[in-house]
Specification:
The protein is an alpha/beta fold. It contains 30 helices and 44 strands. The strands form eleven sheets. It has a seven-stranded parallel beta sheet. The protein starts with 12 loop residues before the first strand and ends with a helix. InterPro entries: Helicase_ATP-bd, Helicase_C-like, P-loop_NTPase, SNF2-like_sf, SNF2/RAD54-like_C, SNF2_N.
Length: 986
Amino acid sequence: MQLFKTDTQRATHHVVYDIYHFAEKLYLPTAYIVSEDQEGYLAHIKQKALKETIGSFELELTPTRDRLFDLIEQLQPKLLAEKFRPNKRSKPTLETLLADRDLAGPIYKYVHTRLAELLERANAEGLPVTWQVERTVLAKDFVIETGLEPLEPQLFFKREEAGVHYRLQLADRDGAWAIGSRDVVPITNHPAWLFVDYKLYRAPAINGNMVLPFQKKEEVHIPRKAVKTYFQKFILKVAAKSEIEAEGFEVQQHEELQACILEPVQDLFSGQWVLSVQMAYPGSTFTWSDPKDKRTSLEFDEGDEVRILQALRQREAEAVFVEKLKKQGLEVNAHQHFVLTEAHEDRYALLEWISANRATLEAEGFTLKLPSAEGKALYLHPPKVELIADQDNDWFDLKGQVTVGAHTFPFMKLAKYIRDGIRLFPLPDGQFFLIPQEWMARYKGLFQFGKKDKDQMRLAKSHFTLLQEIGISAGDEVAEERQLAVDFIPSNQLKASLRPYQLEGARWLVGLYESQLGGCLADDMGLGKTLQTITVLLHAKSQRAQRQQEAKTQGNTDTGAQLGLFAAPDDHDTLKPLQSLVILPASLVFNWEAEIKKFAPTLQVYRHTGQKRYKDIRLLSRFDVILTTYQTALRDVEVLKQMEFEYIVLDESQYIKNKDSKVFKAINQLEGLHKLSLSGTPIENSLSDLWAQMQFINPNLLGSFNFFKKEFIRPIERMHDEDKKNQLRRLVQPYLLRRTKEEVAKDLPPLSTQVFYCEMTAEQKRLYEREKSAARNYLLENYDADNPRFRFKVLQSLTKMRQIANHPKMAVEAYAKGSGKFEDVLEHWETIQKGGHKVLIFSSFVQHLELYRQEFEGHQQPYAWLTGSQSSKERERAIQSFMEKPEVQPFLISIKSGGTGLNLTAADYVFILDPWWNPTTEQQAIARAHRIGQDKHVIAIKFITKDTIEEKILRLQEKKSKLAEDIIGDVEKAKFSKGDIEYLFG
């Protein structure tokens, strides 16, 4: 026979809950870990069971176990003595406290309430309960069987001249029996649990101590003069829930249904509030589903005589009320309570329903019995809230009031309660208002991000979406400001045609500019974030000029002294400099400068790098765009923070992802009217990356970092909380624009080719200049145009210079320093890798590819490899691996062996690591990815090391120079004039 039920498979060990006798009328619980024998029965006690120990026995800490352990902990003798000791300096034992009559009552009540809950939960879950088990015995012999149905009391009264004879019997499914006929021990008084012949029974209708007088005798005689006192103290409350037989008393029958009482009660296990429905008759109350048709109760008449009231139920009248509840949208659950038709996670959902429908229920004749939640009387009335917001520059001032029944108070009073998830708000009369769940969700963001100021709140302009979500028009006004940019047309000073998605991006940036909010442009690599930014910088310059002209028109010009050498241009200048700062990695400075000069030549650009950079803000103020690196900005923070920039732009803004870094702290000291970050990977490792970037563009948009960590990082990264993800998305969405290459495919040409300029490292540059000068001097001094050996020496020198431009290690084996191009290519590769793209990496030198092969192998990155030395089978395996395996993202190919005959359409990026003299060879390499069967748009990037032979090769390609043809032709036929030598080595 199975002694207890379990919802898990048979385990090696179980937790057993034991009840032991501690003192007179006091039983306490403990828990043990008990082994299981081969037949599945409980065997021997291993040790006491605690939350901290059950894991080592492969037992899970379920919510039920967690609560039962809490109850057991609360009922430990030492803790009870500590809780109830009257003098905090004394340390009495629990036995000593129980001897004090004034203290014994509260102790019994405290213990009985918790012990009853433990027994109720264990019984409902089918958990094993033992009776005073010992370590030396088998636990299965001490398991208590629990009665399936509660015991019901039956009262018998016989009135005589000398008083009243009173009998109490208990009834189970087999009928009523005298208490003295069985071994009955009360475990708890109220609610009552009885230990009867080694079974546990609930007896909810009586107090447990009521059985004590009947353990030795069947009947109790109550003297006439004590009848009223005895009945009032022990009988009347129980009589209303019991079957009564009486002789010698006046009997009055009643058939009038006085009221249908609705009482919200809390389900012990789910914690949900449900509705108990009771039918009230004179002297008796029936649960609506009670099968009994009549009940006998007791009351005292005006002469203090006991009389019998007999209530006869009116089923038809009761059914009318039941039907009304069902029409209101309630249904009956398994325990015969009324609940909402739709299931709700909110345990207070029924109480909110009552608040909203209270007037209707009372109008239909129901009587509402107000509940208490967590010991607090609830005030159930439908609430109303009125809110208004006014914009004050970069802030909103929000205020409002709440009305609940007869109470009115400022909306701000709810701040702490909603922010901390506390549903019960105290009212002045001592009752508590239940804050609606919808308010908890709807207004939480306001109180999390707003700053309380007396009876109103200040909310940053960047949080306008929070106002939109609650229907406050001020939030819509900010959104309308941004919509003004819909008709934006790029400046005619922009020397580029924007693709549709780039125009959309520029309009988005202009919208942020117009509403004075920061943004993060997070487009995929290669989609033109720099060009879109240049577009908005030109717009900002024209707007600045317009404001300047308006100021002149209004007579605010200053016709003062002539502009000196170090004076910043004033309003009387034709066009005041934009004074914008772009902070970026050192490798991108030249590319930015080149693109600004190409696409916006009217913008005055200054490279704030190197030893001779300006340290005087009067000079810095003369430029439209200042380009500087993250490290330079850190070093010059004291200078730069003296300026108020029109724009601060961060390119590759993941450089500030570490909130504790010196760079992050320095950049956040700089003053800018508008802020913009550019990054293809705004979240590289953690959501903390996103916080750092948002903190820069719109300070406190996501709160403090500790708040962000608690509210978003932990719930999202650890628990994958979808609600938190959606909340974060709503906060960030207005300020983050990300388009992938796939999303804007219709706006892209099938092939886009870009040139990326790389800066050499200091050591690389010294080595290159030394080699170039030595070769130039030697070749000019030993010039012999017709000598094949001379021509070979020219080509040999050119090759060495190309190698150093790629990575000096290719030309100087002992070289141990870095290469600018090598680092730039790896940065581009990491961005592509994170985006899940595949890339073909071409080089003229197998030796160059080897450097990247070593890098990939060092990071355990799968790759494919193809050079001219491979067999046809090796080539096939490499191609198949790249085309079919998702994890193989890079394909390293020597440009000559990969120039023709390959179909590599799995790739959508192509890297040309070094330029070849004949552009046709590069075009053939790119065509390996961009060919029939390719369903993606291909972006090819040519990496050119600045101020090297590679720039000259690029120019020769563009001019289709005969010199390039000579160089790639037969060395015997190559011709080099002195002018060619000076050009190539100049």
